[in-house]
Design goal:
124 residues, mainly alpha, two-stranded antiparallel sheet, 3% strand
Amino acid sequence: MTDQEVFDKTVRHLWQQGSPATEKGICYYRAPNGAKCAVGIHISDSVYSSAMETHGLTKLLDVRDSVYKPQLEYLRPHLPLLCQLQNEHDSWESDKELAKTLREIASSFSLNAASVDETFGSAA
């Protein structure tokens, strides 16, 4: 998977979901209501465990004894992009603001932002 594919999949997911994966101000990979964050969407059901919720992605990948490290290693090449997408998703306040920020992220990673325009449309 390329950074462009990660970005496009995340953008489409965020639009479809319509809100951050939070509950009572706490961000989740998978929120109790079923919402998934910008990183959670890239963690397959077979790999996901609620025990992941207390750790950031960097920790899950870098802690020597992390039981998740081998299962999540495929995300490592995209770590900077995923962390930025997650930070922005967790602080989502409006579709317009998120679309603007997603375009900025695309630019900073030299990615095409067409998926933002396609999915957010007039809200962007």
